[in-house]
Structures are given as C-alpha cells and as structure tokens.
Amino acid sequence: MCEVTVVTSVCALTLIICVWALCLAVPHLQIYDNVGNGVYKSGFATSQAAYNAAQSALFSTLDSLESQLSDGRPFLLGDRVTEADVRLLPALARFDAVYATLFKCTR
C-alpha cells in the first residue's frame, strides 16, 4: 500500500488526479456514480427502466459499503479517512431527509 501526503489548496479535481497518479485504490468513482450521482439518476429518471437501474446500482453499492464497514473498521479503506469517505458522508447525511422523500430512493 502506498503512503502519500498530498497538500493542496486548489480543488477536489487536483486531489483526484494526484490519487490516481499515485495508484491509490480508492472506490470514489463507485461512490460518485452509484450513490452521489445515483440518487439524482433515480430522482430524475425519465422511464421506469432508468429508475430501476439507478435504484439497483444505488442499493447494491450501499449494501457493498455496509458490508465493508461491518468488520468494525472506522473508514472504508481501514483506519484512515480517504476521499471515498469524504464523498460518501454528505450523501448518507442527506439520504433519509432528502433522497428517500424527494427522489423516492427506497427499497
């Protein structure tokens, strides 16, 4: 596993590029595409098939993330916070109050 310290005051994109360049395995794309963006795919779906696909990806990813955390680790990739954790937190904080009610993101 790589250990890297990145200090930046620029933007999240710079951090993402650095993480990719340093070959750190961070599941941020799955979190972005299936959770952070997935709730909007569900909420603004223009067909039942699109809604079903977005819901399936969303809850499959949430189940996978829950499984990862069920072993007692404090963060997704172990004992250190990563970009994946930072990206997941706001989506989880908004989930019941916003996404479940407005976008019908429920099972």
What kind of sheet is the major sheet? none
| Overall structural domain count | 1
* CA-based shape: globular
CATH architecture label: Up-down Bundle
Description:
The structure is a single chain. The protein has about 110 residues and is mainly α. The chain has one domain (about 25-100): Glutathione S-transferase Yfyf (Class Pi), Chain A, domain 2 (Up-down Bundle), CATH 1.20.1050.10. The chain contains 5 helices and no strands. It is globular.
Record the SSE blueprint:
Layout: H1 12-21, H2 28-36, H3 38-43, H4 48-69, H5 83-102
Give structural attributes.
0% strand, globular, Glutathione S-transferase Yfyf (Class Pi), Chain A, domain 2, 5 helices, 107 residues
Task: Write a short abstract of this structure.
The chain has 5 helices and no strands.
